[in-house]
Each structure stands twice: as C-alpha cells, then as structure tokens.
Design brief:
Blueprint: H1 6-18, E1 25-26, E2 41-42, H2 48-55, H3 70-79, H4 87-94, H5 96-105, E3 113-116, H6 119-129, E4 133-137, E5 147-150, H7 156-160, E6 169-173, E7 177-187, E8 193-195, E9 199-204, E10 207-213, H8 220-236, E11 241-250, E12 255-261, H9 271-274, H10 279-287, E13 301-308, H11 316-325, E14 330-333, E15 343-351, H12 354-369
Parallel strand pairs: 1-2
Antiparallel strand pairs: 3-6, 4-5, 4-6, 7-8, 7-9, 7-11, 9-10, 10-13, 11-12, 13-15, 14-15
The structure holds adenosine-5'-diphosphate and magnesium ion.
Adenosine-5'-diphosphate (ADP) is lined by residues 111, 134, 136, 141-144, 146-147, 172, 174-175, 180, 203, 206, 246, 258-259.
C-alpha cells in the first residue's frame, strides 16, 4: 500500500487476520501506518524510481490516498506491476473534472457543473444558474481544502484564489441538500461486488465528523438507488478495491453524486466494528482477487464520530477518560500528533438506540477536543 496514513494503518489488522503481508510505502517512520507494519519502506511516493523499487517487492500495489501522479501509475503498469485500482479507474478519484465528465456521459446524476478558467467564467456560470457556485481545484484537494463557496457577496480575491494553484477549476451549482450520504462498495477483478449499507455522513468545514450506518430514515428506494449507482460506477470504471461514492440527498428527494474515492473511506470506518467484514478487509480481498466478505451490519445502528485534535496539549488523560466512562465504546487511535482540527482517531458505538449511540460517541469526541470536561 502506497501511503502511510491512517487508512493503511487500519488495513494492517485486516491483513494480519487474512494472513497477508502488508508492505507500506510511507514518507517517514513516524507516519501512522509506518508505526504498525513490519519494515515500512520510507520513500517518496511522487518519485517513480522509489515506486518502482517498492513495487518490485509486492504482488499487487494499492493506495491509501490519491496523490501518486497518474503518469507514474501508467509507467508502473507498463512495467507489468499489478496496480489496483488501475490508473485509468483511479484518475476519476484524482481529478474532479475527469470524474464529472465521465459520470455525466454515463448518465449518472451530478450537480450542474462546468470547468472554468477564471473569475469571469465563474460569474457567467453563476448567472446561468441563478444561484451560488462551489469552486473546486480539480486535483489535490481533500478534507474541504480546495473547495470554495462563492455567493453574490464573495469578495473578488476569494473567487480568484482557486485559480492560483495553476490546475483547472471545477465550478458546480451549490446543491441545496437535505443531507450527505455515502455508498461504499467493493469490487474484485473478476467482477464480484458487495455493497455496504448506505450511510449518512456529516461534514463540518469540509471535514467528515460523523457517520451513521444505515442512514436514518432513508427510504428503501433511495438506499437501493444509491447502491445501484455505486455498483454501476464501479463496474463502468472497472474499479478494483473499495469505491466510496459521496452523494447529496436533495431536499426534493433526489440523489446527486458529489465525488468518488477508490480506497477505504472515512464513511466506511464504522464497518470495522459494525459490519461482518470491514471495508479494509474487503479492500484487501478485492485487490488480491479473493472472494469478498459479507458487508452486512452487525447491529441496527452504528455511529462513528471522528476524533479531531483540539487545544488540549496532552490528550492522554482524556483518552483514558473516554475509555473508562464507556466500556462499550470502541476507540481507534491513529498514532498521530494532535493539532487543532486534525483527524487523530475515531470512536464507534453500535446498538439499537440511535440517540444514545450518538450522544455517547459525541461525548468522547467533545471530551478529547477539550470542549467539555465532564
Ligand atoms: N456542489 C456542492 N454543493 C454544496 N455543497 C458542496 C458541494 N460540493 C461540495 N460541497 C461540500 O463540501 C464538502 C467537500 O467537498 P468535496 O468535493 O467532497 O471535497 P473533498 O475532496 O475535500 O472531500 C462536501 O462534503 C460538501 O459538504
Ligand atoms: Mg469529499
């Protein structure tokens, strides 16, 4: 797995259980996953020579993020390396412009969109919509970095910001959504696929903070439609591994695709404790062309809340407190230094009383961040 973040870290226990040796290419020995795998390879994921040397010791190459340059992936494939998902599929998770145009040609419902080359084109797109616009750098964004909301009162210098990076900018209608959903599926090279229950995900400042599985009150028609969209995209793009489809449920009850990720996704972390087979295990099974495991939930509801760093200089007392207060809460810690707003772990609670699960999971997150002290 290329990338030493928390996704690679959480793949390791699944690899252990499957009897698979997980090798990780990380940028440094202190990275989240480098701490937990045997003999991490410390190298530059943007250097083709480093990727080639790493791939030589692997049966199959997969990723914990989207940041490996597409040309390097193509070069590795030309060398005969098994890259999963393949470069042609992965491009749709790396470039939001490519993703929009492909999904549109497949007839998949998306927000109205266009690629813009400067503030003038943003203004004319906004005029044609008669509403607010969301600008996104087509490449390199994550956790809301690379996303700007433009309203009629947005200052000109903010509208100009996305164009500074020198990559094409995607403009979309600002969707009036009731909530955000995510449909996670896993697909293997021979086309076997499984779909996880559709979840609700809550973002604050562009960062996922909470996931509820399954999405409360989602009609079975929309749930099936979301899974069908994700399975259709996985098959049309020939995705191998986990595919997460981020969706908007509009106020008038339609689904629109926001974006794609082709790796284990934050909206699937609940599956470690809440599903028969975690997304991490199914990602490994898929990229290794093994039979997939059941994605079925173990409890009526599972709530996952991300632990974001706050202003507490030492979180260890808080860490002990959340475990002592609620022994049924599952605590996952990523081994990362604490900085305000940084994802440092997550907790899950599962059972049947949704309000109780939510309040217990949020208590832990608020306590770790230092927002409450009892
Ligand atoms: N067209 C849109 N309309 C309304 N909100 C949006 C739109 N696009 C993105 N957002 C909000 O911004 C968040 C981050 O955007 P996204 O494209 O998923 O970027 P990232 O790659 O940072 O996750 C979304 O989860 C959603 O909350
Ligand atoms: Mg997103």
């Amino acid at each position: 797995m290329v990338g030493g973040g928390q996704l690679a870290r959480m793949t390791q226990p699944a690899a252990v259980a499957l009897g698979v040796r997980l090798k990780v290419l990380a940028a440094g020995p202190d990275e989240s996953a480098a701490q937990v795998v045997h003999d991490p390879v410390i190298a530059d994921e943007k250097a083709l020579a480093d990727l080639r040397a790493f791939a030589a010791g692997c049966d199959v190459l997969t990723f914990d993020h989207e940041h490996v340059p597409p040309a390097h992936l193509e070069a590795l494939e030309a060398d005969g390396v098994l890259v999963r998902p393949g470069s042609a599929a992965l491009l749709h998770a790396q470039d939001k412009g490519v993703m929009r145009s492909r999904l549109t040609s497949l007839g998949i419902p998306c927000p109205r969109w266009t690629v813009v080359s400067g503030p003038d084109e943003v203004a004319s797109f906004a005029a044609s919509l008669g509403g607010d616009v969301v600008l996104k750098t087509t490449r390199g964004g994550y956790d809301g970095k690379g996303v700007w909301l433009v309203t009629s009162s947005t200052p000109a210098e903010v509208v100009a910001e996305p164009f500074r990076a020198g990559v094409p900018v995607l403009a979309e209608e600002r969707v009036d959504y009731a909530r955000e959903l995510s449909a996670v599926v896993a697909r293997s090279p021979h086309g076997q696929a499984v779909a996880y229950p559709v979840v609700e995900s809550v973002q604050r400042d562009g960062i996922c903070v909470e996931v509820v599985a399954p999405a409360p009150g989602l009609s079975s028609d929309l749930a099936v439609e979301a899974q069908r969209l994700a399975l259709t995209i996985a098959s049309a793009l020939d995705v191998v591994g986990v595919l997460a489809v981020e969706l908007f449920e509009t106020v008038d009850g339609r689904l629109l695709v926001n974006e794609l990720a082709m790796r284990p996704h934050n909206s699937g972390h609940w599956s470690i404790d809440g599903a028969v087979t975690s997304q991490f295990e199914n990602h490994l099974r898929a990229v290794l062309n093994l039979p997939l495991g059941s994605p079925v939930a173990r409890a009526p509801y599972t709530v996952m809340v991300n632990l974001l760093g706050g202003d507490l200089p030492d979180v260890y007392p808080a860490y002990r407190h959340v475990m002592a207060r609620d022994p049924e809460l599952k605590v996952h810690w990523y081994g990362k230094g604490v900085r305000p707003g940084r994802k440092v772990g997550h907790v899950t609670a599962y059972g049947s009383d949704l309000a109780d699960l939510r309040s217990r999971a949020w208590h832990a997150a608020d306590y770790i961040r230092g927002d409450i002290d009892e």
